[in-house]
Structures are given as C-alpha cells and as structure tokens.
Amino acid sequence: MRTPCAAVILLLATPLSLPSQSLESLTLRFAGFTTVSGYEQAVTDSLLTLFPGATRDRLGDVSITLGSGSPRRLVSCPLDEAGYVVGGITSEGYLTLRREGRVASPLFEQQLEGHRVTVFGASGPVPGVVGVRSVQLTRGRGPNETPFTVDDAYVDIGASSATEVAALGVRLLSPVALARRPHRYGEGMAAPAAARHAACAALASALLSHPKVTGSVVASFTVQGLQAGDPGLSAVIALKGPFADTLTATLPVKYRDTMAETVMMADVQALEQRLAQWMGGAK
User: Fold this and answer.
1) From CA 247, how far away is CA 174, in angstroms rounded?
2) Distance of alpha carbon 161 from alpha carbon 54, whole angstroms
3) Cis upstream peptide for 147 (omega within 30°)
4) Are strands 216-222 and 72-78 parallel, antiparallel or unpaired?
5) For each of the chain's 283 residues, which pLDDT tens digit applies?
6) Treating both helix axes as pointing N-terminal to C-terminal, what angle do 41-50 and 194-208 enclose, rounded to 10 degrees?
7) Looking at residue 46, what DSSP letter applies?
C-alpha cells in the first residue's frame, strides 16, 4: 500500500501564522491549499489561528470584525474551489468520483485524465493518479468518440482491494482534488483555483496590515460559494448584517478552471491595496 505524501501532509499541518511574510509568500501558500466546495474546514482552521478573535459560524465561514458603529460594511472572498468526492470504491481498490461545485468550462473534467490527485482521507492526504485509456486497446478510435468525463475516472491510490482503501482512511465522500504544485513564472502565478485563493490571500494580507477602518467592517472568508445560492455568503449576511455596502475580493484571471489558471502578482498587490483603502472608507 502507498503511504501518504509527506510534503502534502506538511503543507496542511503547518499553522498559517504568517503575518511577517510577504504578500507573494502568502499568495503562494494560499495557492497550495485545497478547498473542495463543502470541505473547507482544514483551511478555516488555519484562518482561525492566523486571526485571533475571528469566529466561525455553523456553516464554516470565518469572519473578523474591525471597528464599531456605522456604517457597517462587508468585505468577503470565497474560499472554495470546484473538485470531487469519492463516489464509489471498487472491489479492486479503485475510486470513482463525483464532482462538487459549479465550473465555467465544459471541459473542466478532461484535465483529470492521467493526472495526479490527492484524496483527503480520515488518516491524512493520500496521493493518487487518474487512469488513462489503454493506447493499445483503443488504437484507431473514431472521430465520434465522446470526451473524457468524471464518469470515466478511476483513481489508483495504490490499494488492491476495498479493505486496503479503508485502511488508508479513504471513505465515500472523501474530498479529491488535483495535486497542488503552485508555479511562479514571470509576473504571474499558476495553480488550480489560483484566482479565488490569491484573492483570499490579498484580503488576509490587507487585514494583517491593520487598516484603520471607518465605522465597522466585517471581513469574511466564505465557504460553499460554488454551491447553488452561495449559502456561505448568504449566512454571513443573515448573521452579521444588515450592511450598508459590500465588496467581494476578485481578480482578473487567465485560463480559468484549468490546472494552469493564472493571476498576475501585480493584480494581487493592487487588490490588497484596494481592499485596505476600502476598509478605511475610500471608494
């Protein structure tokens, strides 16, 4: 049986106490997190460590309140990303998948084929790979062959039976995501869900700069933003509102919903500055 990857375990286990690090370091760290929609707790645990006094509601949103009085405003960023959960376990030890979260690209699932993934089991992260069709057995395929979908995905985690899968801590509904390898190149940074995670890094960095706010500002890292109705943001508004004004942290992005989703670090820096100014009352 294959054992969990030590590098992945270290990434998830190390507390996110990084107030002295640069915005670039914080962005790369956030880009290395996995936050499958509905399974964001590991990251929200780290945010509670990073921001003493932060609170987490029953749905999982993490909120920090700065200042007091009116006007009361909300700034937020969605933490979650589209990913997968284990939908089935075969007698031979393979995993089948079901997708979690909305995506913009109809070809999102094709990038799974043949790539490394991480399965987050009860005993820790387990590395795996999605199988590909046999080149020999499928030689001469016709032009009408259907594209790869999640229903074609079989994940190999090194187990040869359902019993061995269970021994690795993997269960039905264990979250699954593409293996994280954030890549800094030129003026950009690429990783799955780079835009959402970098926007949250910009918000975290703005908060760590201790901006002087006008009135009161609630800063929220919301969950389940890719689910119908955006329940995380809706919960924050219901619990913390009403708000005189709201702002969602977003970034320009290239190659959205791909393994090479890219943001420009200059845009991340500009967003951090804009968020800090907005919290101070600037339009």
Assistant:
1) 33
2) 43
3) no
4) parallel
5) 333 333 333 333 344 544 456 899 999 999 999 999 999 999 999 999 999 999 999 999 999 999 999 999 999 999 999 999 999 999 999 999 999 988 877 788 898 999 999 999 999 999 999 998 776 666 666 666 778 899 999 999 999 999 999 999 999 999 999 998 899 999 999 999 999 999 999 999 999 998 899 899 999 999 999 999 999 999 999 999 999 999 999 999 999 998 899 999 999 999 999 999 999 988 7
6) 20
7) H
- Beta-carbon-side half-sphere exposure of residue 239 (alpha carbons within 13 Å): 20
Find tokens 């969990």 and name the residue: 4
Q: What angle do CA 179, 252, 224 make, to 5 degrees?
A: 55
Domains in the chain with CATH codes? 19-81+182-279 (3.40.630.10), 83-178 (2.40.30.40)
Spatial CA neighbour of 13 closest among 37, 40, 45, 36:
45
Q: Where are the alpha helices (DSSP H) in the chain?
A: 6-13, 23-31, 41-50, 162-167, 194-208, 231-240, 265-279
Largest Cα–Cα distance in the chain? 70
